Structures are given as structure tokens and as C-alpha cells.
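INFO  loader      accepted 1 record
INFO  loader      residues=348
INFO  predictor   begin
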Amino acid sequence: MRLLAPAALLLALLTPGCGIGGSASIEAPVAVYVSLPLTGPRGADGRDAADGARLALEQAAGQAGSLRVDARYLDDARGRTWDPVAVGANARAAVQDSSAAAYIGELDSEPTRASAPITNDAGLVQVSPGAGAVDLTQPAAGYPNTPDRYQPSGTPNFARTVPADDVVVKAAATWASELGATAALAGSDGSAFEDLAASEFRTAAGEHGIEVAPTLHGRKVALYSPSAGTIEFGGQHYAVSAELDPSRLPDETFSARFRQRFHRDPGPYAAYGYAAMGLVLHAIGDAGTDASSFRDKVRGAVFGAHLDGTVLGSYAITSVGDTTECMIQRYRIEGTTRIPLEAPCPTG
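INFO  predictor   done
INFO  writer      dumping C-alpha cells
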């Protein structure tokens, strides 16, 4: 049997009413799919992001504009860090659901690389609360044919509420300079991610007048680890993170609201799940109710969106899907404890 295209499915399966000029309009609830690691090693972070999204939808009373919005929460890990079968199944379930308006996921970059081509091919907007990989939105050394390989439709559909990895690397170089480093080393395990991050760190460090060379004996040397996001300098360990500590969020009421609803303190990913759902609801509300172009309009409303007064403050989504929110959380590491410090935007 011939399958209907997404636009035709919307027309055929959503409850239509008579719109202007006789066009079909959406009257039934629309769905937002939320695909995150709810089990496994990343389960705590994934559940935080999912509950952040759940809180945002509840506080919007399940509405976006005139439309009722339902959420479907799916586990993309099945007890692992992420499960390729689960990720593919979640993305396909979303694109094949005629009521689906958006897809929130995945938490990390590697599973996002697997789901993004599926949602893109169907024209379903995808918003991640944690995937920071540069190649998802821009060409990146070590990642051939990016981001085109994730965009079979030829049009971007992926956006994120978390700053990209290159912003984090630039922030690490800024902080190394502020700490007083005059030289720096950036390690790499030979992976594409660490090679790219190390290269970006060397460039950013050079812009701050920090020398990056193989032999740096007798200098004030900062050691940067891309995978851990840590800086070692002067016998002290520090860390940088794209996700703000809940105590440092621009919205100082978020932690209390999250705690009241879920009876636990939020982790750093909770606010980004909340922001992802807020961005999606904003886009759905702006998309109108014309079923024939609904997914396109939701996607179009995400790219170029400007939101004020959110849990993350004011930010916009660029034409390639990056957020303009740039605050990077600084931590001082004492034993196994991370002590949150300030969260400035990188300079230089």
C-alpha cells in the first residue's frame, strides 16, 4: 500500500475543519515527541531534561496558541548510554505520526546524528537540549559532508537550546587567560571530536596571547582536556560546561518550581529540556492551523525565533539552528565536588 506523505497525512488524519478558502485546518491535538535517555548511565540527566520539558508543557496548560499539545516521552537508551535501535524507532514513530508537530531529542550528539536525518527527511523540526556538536549545524573538520549529511531534505530542521561545543572551547581559552596562563596544552585521544576541540582551543588561546606549543617547560601552563571540559592550572582543577548550574540560571524561580513539582532538585539539563519545550510551544503557537503547511511553519518559526524572559534569559535561534545564548558555567573542582562559580560568555 502506498504511504501518504507527511502533509497528506496531516490532511487525512488530523480532524479537519473548514478554514479560509476551504483549506483544512487542524483542530485535533498535536504531538511533541520527547526522545531522551530515561534509563542507563545517562538516565538521571535524561529524566531531568524530560521533566523540564514536562514542566514547561504543564505550565503552558498543554496549549500552544489555539492548539492542544500532547507529549510522548520515549527512552532512547534501553539501559545503555544510547541505543541505535531505540533512537531510530523513536524518530520513525514521530515522523510517521500525522499529529506530530516537533521532536525534542536527543540529549547527546552521537544519537542526534542518527535521528536528525530521519526527522529532517520528513520536515519535522528537532530541538535538542544537550547536543552541542559543531558538525550538526556547521561544516566541521574531521566530519565529512557536514551538516549536509544530516539534512537530506536540503533544509535545516535541527536546533538546540544549549551552546555549541565551539562556544565551550572558546570559553575555556578565555578562562585560562584570566587565570594567568601564558602557555597551554590541549590533549586529544585522536578522535574527530577531540582533534577538533583541541584545534579550536589552540586558535582561541592564541587570540588571548597564550602560547600553544609542544614544549612549554618553565611557563605558566594550563592543561585543557576537551572530553572532560577541564582545565588544570597552578595545581587547581577547573571545569567548564555548556549547561548552567541551576543556582546560576537567569530565572531564579526555576529550581523552586521544579522541586515543588518533582520533589527533587533539578540537575543542569532540566532547564534545557524546559527551554526546548518552550521553544517548540512558541513555534507551534506561531504556526497557525493550516494542516497543509503546518510542519513547515513550525520549523520556520523555530529558526529565527527570539525569546525573551525565558529560564535561560533572552536568546535567539540562528538560521543554522544554533542558540545565541552563550553563558558557560565555570566550576572549581574540590575532590569529587564541583563548586559553581560565575557563568560569563566567552570573549576574544
